[in-house]
């Protein structure tokens, strides 16, 4: 088995990023990426099991800074002094990131590929569930410091994400072309927090 190196992985990701941008996800292929790289498909598959996995890695790296900014506010290392305010900060960052033009395009692509390729499953496992897990751990800490009532935090995290997107998800899914401003999304986050605290607050 060929020895994997970080340098080679970065070369693959760079070539893949170029191909995805030039051809789009559907027309891109492992053959095109390996040709751009100047190697074989076997080398690619030594690092990534599929085009879908490689694509997810590329977009994750390209959006890592924004994603880290969103989740930083619910890092369990943070003190929980004012839970509603901290959840509001997280909520508005989340909505403005997920419904940015760039992320809307990626999200639509992912949904369109669900059931056709494994891109949807990969994204759900590594992005959606990961975000829920991070929030669940934060809510557990809130319970420990008596900021929330004792509850199933995995379920509570799902409820909070559902509340955040309650006014915007269907217009997005059905492409109503309704535009939401940053101010409107911030207001959505505020209302989501209010309902969440009514349900789970002490």
UniProtKB/TrEMBL annotation:
Is Transmembrane one of the keywords? no
Q: Which UniProt keywords apply?
A: DNA-binding, Transcription, Transcription regulation
According to its UniProt entry, this protein's organism is Halarcobacter mediterraneus
- InterPro entries noted in UniProt: Homeodomain-like_sf, HTH-type_TetR-like_transc_reg, HTH_TetR, TetR_C_Proteobacteria
Q: DNA binding happens at which residues?
A: 29-48
Keyword DNA-binding among UniProt keywords: yes
| Ranges of residues in domain HTH tetR-type | 6-66
One of the record's GO molecular function terms? transcription cis-regulatory region binding
- Its name, as the record gives it, is TetR family transcriptional regulator
Entry-linked SUPFAM superfamilies: Homeodomain-like (SSF46689)
Superkingdom of origin organism: Bacteria
């Amino acid at each position: 088995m060929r020895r994997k190196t970080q340098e080679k992985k970065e070369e693959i990701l760079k070539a893949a990023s170029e191909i995805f941008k030039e051809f789009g996800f559907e027309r891109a292929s492992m053959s095109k990426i390996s040709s751009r790289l100047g190697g074989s498909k076997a080398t690619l598959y030594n690092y990534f099991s599929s085009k879908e996995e490689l694509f997810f890695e590329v977009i994750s790296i390209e959006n890592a800074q924004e994603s880290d900014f969103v989740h930083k506010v619910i890092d369990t290392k943070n003190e929980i002094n004012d839970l509603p305010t901290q959840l509001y900060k997280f909520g508005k960052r989340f909505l403005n990131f997920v419904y940015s033009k760039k992320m809307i395009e990626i999200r639509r692509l992912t949904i369109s590929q669900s059931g056709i390729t494994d891109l949807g499953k990969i994204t759900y496992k590594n992005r959606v569930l990961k975000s829920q897990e991070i929030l669940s751990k934060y809510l557990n800490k809130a319970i420990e410091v008596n900021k929330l009532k004792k509850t199933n935090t995995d379920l509570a995290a799902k409820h909070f994400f559902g509340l955040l997107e309650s006014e915007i998800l269907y217009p997005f899914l059905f492409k109503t072309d309704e535009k939401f401003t940053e101010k409107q999304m911030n207001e959505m986050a505020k209302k989501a927090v209010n309902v969440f605290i009514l349900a789970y607050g002490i």
